Amino acid sequence: MIFQKYAAPKYFYPLAGKCLPWFGTLAILTICAGLYLGLFVAPPDYQQGETVRIMFIHVPAAWMSMFIYAMMAGAAAIGLVWKIKLTDTFITASAAIGASFTLLALLTGSLWGKPMWGAWWVWDARLTSELILLFLYLGFMSLHSAIDDPRRASRAGAILLLIGVINLPVIHYSVEWWNTLHQPTSVARIDGPRIHSSILTPLLIMAVAFKLFYVSVVLIRMRSSILDNEADSRWLQEQGA
Amino acid sequence: MKPRHKKISFIALAVFGLSAVTLLILNTFSSNIVFFHSPTDISEGKAPINQTFRLGGMVKDNSVKHNKDGLKVSFTVTDTIKDINVTYKGILPDLFREGQGVVVQGKLLQTGEFKADQVLAKHDENYMPPEAKAAMEQAARTLLLPKK
After folding, report:
1. Digit-coded pLDDT (tens) for B71-95
2. Measured distance CA(A66)–CA(A98) in Å, rounded
3. Chain B residue closest to A123 (CA)?
4. pLDDT digits (tens, 9 = 90+) for B91-136
């Protein structure tokens, strides 16, 4: 199988190197396009005025925080079952990026909350479950680095990630299940998005841009981690030095 | 069963079991996770009396009255079924306006009046430019006119 071949660092490393410029270029282009459309072209909101523009960072960052966690948990399950070393490389490379997006979502949300709601922070179900997600990321990173044996570290980390998956539906449905100060879902609704297309377009471009950014950074981090782990291996010495 | 299949089913079962447990726990504590109570909840006696809690609903149209000294304000919070009068002294958030969602924190007085020490504006899920809002209001007016 072709996938199995690329699960070996020997083949993954050059493949990632080939893909990287494409993802990187596309990420820069979409981020520039999304930010330009969001900050300069999109109209102000009828209620929030210019403050609505925080959403173009906040919402895609919050989506990424959950998307990256889902990716990590999926890789953790695959790693536990098929014992593929590369999944651990992927998970550890993703963790810091996911944590950063979570922090970005929390901070931008806080900046929006003060003028709009009248509070930097409230303990409602949406905000609290997103904060728990940040702690899951931080908990995973500290657990993984606290165990010296790499195989035991990846096993323990994978189990923690799989337990934490429960938090993802809680974050998504928190605004429906309970009374929250956070507004209900605007985009992923059965009856269609509740955002005017002039505001929705830059939002979706930013969402794609953040995904491309994530892929680029995760490839860079995976490559450097492979260099670190495989420093003594033959294929690497033949290729590089 | 192959060992690999065993492992897959074990992981699936564990995640499923944990989700079920979490769901049950969240369901049990549901009333404590609620961020605010509605005026109907209060009239049914579900909200704590003589204790600080949050009241949520819509600011009733034409109910906001600013006191002469500037900082004191009173308004009615409604969930379209029950109304509660709220008094507050302080600065209101940007999004606070009549017909919009609001969450106020404070105490219910014996008189049935709610004395707030914090007012939070609740935003809804609709985002649009001012022109689109104006067009919608225009459309609503033309729809309403023939009925009158």
Report:
1. 788 899 988 888 889 999 888 888 8
2. 8
3. B35
4. 888 888 888 889 998 888 888 888 888 899 888 777 887 777 777 7
ipTM of the complex: 0.73
Give CA–CA dist A225/B1, Å, rounded: 36
What's the pLDDT at A91?
96
Q: Look at residues A86, A29, A21, A12 and name the one whose alpha carbon lies nearest to residue A216.
A: A21
Tokens of A42: 């999109």
Chain A residues whose C-beta sits inside 8 Å of any chain B C-beta: 43-49, 51-52, 55, 77, 80-82, 115-119, 122-125, 162-163, 165-166, 169-170, 177-181, 183-186, 189, 194-196, 198-200
Beta-carbon contacts of residue A44 (< 8 Å; ≥ 6 apart):
A50, A52, B129, B130
Tell me which DSSP letter residue B37 carries.
Answer: B
For the stretch A45-76, pLDDT in tens is: 888 888 889 999 999 999 999 999 999 999 99
Kindly state the tokens that stand for A143. Answer: 């657990």
Pairwise CA distance, residues A180 & A157, whole Å:
32
The residue with tokens 């922070």 is A121
DSSP state letter for B77: E
CB contact under 8 Å between A119 and B120, yes or no, is: yes
Alpha-carbon torsion (A142, A147, A150, A151), positive or negative? negative
Beta strands in A11-121 (DSSP E): none
For residue A179 the two structure tokens come to 């009374």
> Residue A121, exposed/middle/buried by CB under 10 A (0-12, 13-18, 19+)?
middle
Q: Scanning the structure block, which residue is given the tokens 């605007």?
A: A186
- CB contact at 8 A, A95 and A137: yes
Instruction: Please count the helices (runs of H) and the strands (runs of E) in chain B.
Output: 4, 6
Radius of gyration of chain B (CA): 23
* Helix pair angle (A167-177, B3-28), 10° resolution: 30
